């Protein structure tokens, strides 16, 4: 029997077109779904990368010390009230670098910090470092050609180098010759070398204790000032030029050592690779070497911490405390999302400091 519907092509074309529309819609939906899935996958990858970058950056920052200026945190310095001084006598003929930490009680007058031989001395006059040393190069906080002591009750590191060797034959600290004692303030970490230390050497070492001073061949005096009691200042160099303390009135030993700074930020370091304190990273931004748009910022603040619960009770940029909080924030590309990590660094632990040999204990 003849089927007269079999050869009507209109129905086939309509069915094909309908199928094509359905396939197109399905493909569009599939494409959108795939795009959504791929977008989510990319975002997840960015999140993972941001988390990894935050962790690795925080680990790098936390590997640095709290603020290793001279002696380790929590130890001692000597406090002079105008009547105290220390005598070391003959130290060495050939000194070319002298460095120390000091804190002055006043800026208007003259403070005789170190008398080398009864003639040559290092002093602070009206807030300026002055000496009788031939052709000196001055450093304050490891910055060359700086001589200013700008504030009272603030620790400054002072270094003086010369190409003309000095005969330190009658060393006195806090006194000028046979005159009355003439220094009011605090002194810590005195070092003398028989070589002219370079600017990079001073910058690299002024905030660090010396791990093995007895074996430092050029080191001829090293007063760590960490004993905390008694009338003797121990020289931890192989020269062993120990000193005698003369004090009047209050105890000359103080727990306020030069172990940390009130300044958050770099103190002369030129690049990330030379940062050696956690606070050197404060305010620094960074990016990832390979992933565009992935980067962040580091902040460091002093905080008060409950030592039982480790809860931060008073995040603040000042005053100084025994704890610093480091925050690493990494932005995630494609929006305002970010990942953020916090960590607490304590000054109460000895960090970046190891004394491998000392014949005198403290």
Q: Concise description?
A:
The protein is an alpha+beta fold and 362 residues long. It has helices at 9-62, 199-205, and strands at 77-81, 85-89, 92-104, 110-115, 121-125, 128-131, 137-140, 143-144, 156-168, 171-173, 184-193, 219-223, 232-233, 243-246, 253-254, 285-287, 295-303, 323-331, 338-346.
Structure report:
The structure is a single chain. A hairpin with a 2-residue loop joins strand 7 and strand 8 (143-144). The chain is built from 2 helices and 19 strands. Strands 1, 3, 7, 8, 9, 11, 12 and 15 form an 8-stranded antiparallel β-sheet that branches. Helices cover 17% and strands 31% of the residues. With 362 residues, it is an alpha+beta fold. It has helices spanning 9-62, 199-205; strands at 77-81, 85-89, 92-104, 110-115, 121-125, 128-131, 137-140, 143-144, 156-168, 171-173, 184-193, 219-223, 232-233, 243-246, 253-254, 285-287, 295-303, 323-331, 338-346.
């Amino acid at each position: 029997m003849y089927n007269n519907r079999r050869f009507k092509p209109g129905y086939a074309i309509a069915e094909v077109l309908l199928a094509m529309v359905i396939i197109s819609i399905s493909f569009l939906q599939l494409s959108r779904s795939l795009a959504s899935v791929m977008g989510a996958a990319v975002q997840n990858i960015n999140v993972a990368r941001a988390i990894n970058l935050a962790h690795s950056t925080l680990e790098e920052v936390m590997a640095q010390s709290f603020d290793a200026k001279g002696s380790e945190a929590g130890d001692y310095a000597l406090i002079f009230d105008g009547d105290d001084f220390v005598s070391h006598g003959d130290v060495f003929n050939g000194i070319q670098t002298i460095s120390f930490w000091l804190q002055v009680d006043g800026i208007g007058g003259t403070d005789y910090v170190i008398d080398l031989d009864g003639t040559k001395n290092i002093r602070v006059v009206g807030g300026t470092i002055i000496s009788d040393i031939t052709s000196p190069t001055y450093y304050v906080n490891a910055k060359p050609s700086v001589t200013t002591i700008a504030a009272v009750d603030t620790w400054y590191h002072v270094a003086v180098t010369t190409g003309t060797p000095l005969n330190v034959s009658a060393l006195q600290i806090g006194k000028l010759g046979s005159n009355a004692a003439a220094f009011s303030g605090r002194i810590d970490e005195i070092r003398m070398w028989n070589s002219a230390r370079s600017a990079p050497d001073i910058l690299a070492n002024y905030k660090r204790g010396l791990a093995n001073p007895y074996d430092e061949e050029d080191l001829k005096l090293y007063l760590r000032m960490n004993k905390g009691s008694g009338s003797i200042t121990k020289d931890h160099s192989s020269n062993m030029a120990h000193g005698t303390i003369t004090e009047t009135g209050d105890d000359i030993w103080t727990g306020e050592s030069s172990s940390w700074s009130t300044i958050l930020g770099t103190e002369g370091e030129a690049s990330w690779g030379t940062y050696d304190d956690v606070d050197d990273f404060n305010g620094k931004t960074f990016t990832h070497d390979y992933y565009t748009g992935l980067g962040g910022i580091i902040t460091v603040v002093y905080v008060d911490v409950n030592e039982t619960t480790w809860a931060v009770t008073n995040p603040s940029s000042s005053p100084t405390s025994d704890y610093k909080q480091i925050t690493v924030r990494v932005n995630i590309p494609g929006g305002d999302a970010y990942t953020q990590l916090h960590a607490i660094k304590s000054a109460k632990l000895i960090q970046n400091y190891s004394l491998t040999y000392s014949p005198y204990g403290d």
